[in-house]
Amino acid sequence: MAYIKHILILLLALSSVSYGERVSFEYLKRLLLEKNLNIKISKAEIEITKERYKVEKSYLFPTVSMNFYNEFIRDLRNSPTYINGQYYIGNTGYSSSLSLSIDYLIFDFGSRKYRLKMFETSIDTSKENLNYTKEKQVLTLLDKYYEALIN
Predict the structure, then answer these.
(1) Domain boundaries, the chain
(2) Could you give the CA distance from residue 44 to residue 61 in angstroms, rounded to a whole number?
(3) Which one is predicted more confidently, 134 or 82?
């Protein structure tokens, strides 16, 4: 199945060139590096890992949050309430609150440092995986190109 897929890639590359024109290996290699799905996936994995690293690194900074709460309460019982020498019909009230908080983790026994190292290693691994995928695809193309030249 993989053999058929590589032949189809070679035929696709050959079909994009007009008949009677020679196809160089460099042209096919450039086309392969631009269009290959495995290489695109490897590049996307690198970008995803870099974004995860940025998220993990953002935990090193303090978090600031602000909440506002507003409430109107109305009592529908219509029973009088005595407050400061006056009678009020029903209990109606307003409630508002505003809170501001700053959170910062001072000490975590070094777990953030090791998580950042883990993500840095993961980025390096993803880059090596991309290089391996490129080399593997180019070698497969070279093999198919050689077979096409012989036959």
Answers:
(1) 2-61+107-150, 63-103
(2) 27
(3) 134
Residue (of 98, 99, 100, 114) closest to 59 by Cα position = 114
Q: Say how far apart CA 112 and CA 150 lie, in whole Å.
A: 57
What is the distance between the alpha carbons of residues 140 and 146, in angstroms, rounded to a whole number?
A: 10
Task: Name beta bridge partners: 103.
Answer: 63
Helix (H, G, I), strand (E, B) or coil at 98: strand
Mean pLDDT for 119-128 is 92
Average pLDDT value for residue range 122-144: 91
- Chain-centroid distance of CA 92 in Å reads 50
Q: Is 63 left (phi over 0), alpha (psi -120 to 50) or beta?
A: beta
Number of residues assigned to the chain = 151
Computed over every residue of the chain, the mean pLDDT equals: 81
Closest to 141 measured CA to CA, from 38, 9, 15, 47: 9
Q: Could you report the per-residue pLDDT of 25-82, keeping only the tens digit for each?
A: 888 888 888 888 888 999 999 999 999 999 988 888 888 999 998 887 766 666 666 7
